[in-house]
């Protein structure tokens, strides 16, 4: 089973609706609904299968840990929710052990790693930064 199918199956198993419709500005978003959540993806703004996987896994991250921000409170930090959603997506799409093995096997360029893991280059950069700077993991 490919990764995108696996992500949609994960959503289905967890009662998370995923719908597609054009949006003016957003490319994707998720909202809490009655104890679960729903995800919207704009199909006109999905640039590739890798982009779809990144967007879907990020939104699933919001749903899984309940990370929805409230613009009406000064104590809610949007970046914190976005980082947690990205971290969930990184663990799901680019597990550290597989990334470390890929680098050990000579796949070291960002574009090459992104292609290998079927994610966007921007997301791969975020993942590398997350693992090496925030988690302090080493490739040795």
Q: How would you sum up the global shape?
A: globular
- Give the biggest beta sheet: 3 strands, mixed
What is the radius of gyration computed over CA atoms, rounded to a whole number of angstroms?
A: 16 Å
Q: Strand order of the main beta sheet, please?
A: 1-3-2
What is the helix fraction of residues, given as a range? 40-55%
Write up this protein.
With 140 residues, the chain is mainly alpha-helical. It is 54% helix and 11% strand. Helix 2 (49-65) packs across helix 3 and helix 5 crosses helix 6. The termini are far apart. The model has no long low-confidence stretch (mean pLDDT 91).
Write the layout of secondary structure elements.
Blueprint: H1 3-13, E1 17-20, E2 28-33, E3 36-41, H2 49-65, H3 78-93, H4 96-104, H5 110-117, H6 121-134
Parallel strand pairs: 1-3
Antiparallel strand pairs: 2-3
Helix pairs in contact: 1-2, 2-3, 5-6
Question: In a nutshell, what does this entry contain?
Answer:
By secondary structure, this protein is mainly alpha-helical.
Features:
globular, mainly alpha, three-stranded mixed β-sheet, 140 residues
């Amino acid at each position: 089973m490919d990764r995108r199918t696996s992500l949609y199956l994960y959503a289905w198993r967890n009662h998370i609706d995923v719908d597609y419709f054009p949006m003016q500005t957003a490319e994707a978003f998720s909202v809490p609904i009655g104890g679960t959540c729903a995800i919207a993806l704009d199909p006109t703004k999905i640039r590739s299968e890798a982009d779809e996987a990144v967007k879907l896994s990020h939104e699933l991250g919001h749903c899984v840990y309940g990370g929805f921000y409230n613009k009406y409170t000064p104590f809610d930090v949007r970046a914190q929710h976005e980082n947690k959603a990205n971290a969930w997506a990184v663990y799901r799409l680019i597990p550290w052990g597989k990334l470390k093995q890929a680098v050990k096997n000579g796949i070291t360029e960002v574009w090459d790693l992104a292609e290998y893991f079927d994610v966007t280059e921007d997301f791969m950069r975020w993942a590398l930064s997350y693992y090496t700077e925030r988690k302090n993991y080493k490739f040795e």
